[in-house]
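Bit of a strange request maybe. I'm writing a small parser for structure token strings and I need a real example to test against, not something I typed by hand. Could someone generate the tokens for this chain?
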Amino acid sequence: MADSNGTATAESRAGGIRATGRRRRGPSRRRRALTISLCTLTSVVLLGGAGLGYVYFKLNGNLKGVDINAALGHDRPQNVDDGSMDILVMGSDSRAGKNGEYGKDEGGARSDTAMVVHVYKGHKKASVVSIPRDTLIKRPDCTKNGRNVPGAQRTMFNTAFEVGGPACAVKTVESISGIRMDHFIEVDFSGFKKLIDALGGVDITTRKTIDDDKSHLHLQPGKHTLDGEQSLGLVRTRHGVPGGDGSDLGRIQLQQTFLKALMKQVKNVGVLTNPTKLYDVADTATKAITTDTDLNSVSELTGLAKSLGSIGSDSIDMVTLPVAYDTANPDRVVPLTKHGKQVWDALRNDQDIPKSALKGSAGDTGGTSRYVK
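Reply from user aminoacidic:
Good idea to test on real output. This should exercise your parser:
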């Protein structure tokens, strides 16, 4: 709930996990160290692509592209050419095809996960802003398949992707932030599962029981190697975690922690030194993603990876868009306008996000360090 000033007074307690990685030699001291080079899945493509010149053609054939620039035209924030970069990364929860086992297909995919990745000028550090899917926002008018999609007031953020596809999602984020997105990347359910399985699973340690029939996840406290199905359950669970409030906020922190473990997994299983495994992972990852047309080739992804290669995991700050629980519907959250402006203004000016921007937000109640030793 929120007080009279719109400040959240309830914490999102998602019951923690700590990421161990595989064959980890010692505990990580890096806090909020999420090496999320394009939402982890894409980072596998980026890191792996450079060594796969002989299969570029096949991998290129896996990639799907959306012409965001053509869809949105010129009605967009200014394209600031200062060396910084902004990328919208989304996880799709479509129930179509093989994803149907996760529920009824109600006509379109929604954005199960949304992150704005801001890469600072010089490409030495980055900030990541997670946008809760349950955030009530003003959605702008969009166009899909040549027809107008009317905007809406106080509608959930993830409906933008559902009703208008990637272009509408980008337009909505740009309308919220005032920042032009340079690139777009989408990852789907089934592709996520297959990638985890191709990697051989991901090791995590749970501190409390996770028991969620809706996400098909049941874990006792202790160490686990999660396969693709279990990993998907973990990053989607929000009802079966002790202390959780059923909102998207606790799930976001679980996602952050899991992605950290996944990056350690990629490093520790020797993907980059094992050509066969590297190909399997890259083949799986390129099939799992949809990008904007400017990134729709392995060579472009590889070039981007090289330009971001100097960003260390301890140079990435990760936050959640400042929000409070909606007083009319506690299952939804609303942006804290003043605090959100601080976040977006900082990124627009290529500056660090001030800690004051997160004060009083229901979305950042300790960050991933609550769950990671």
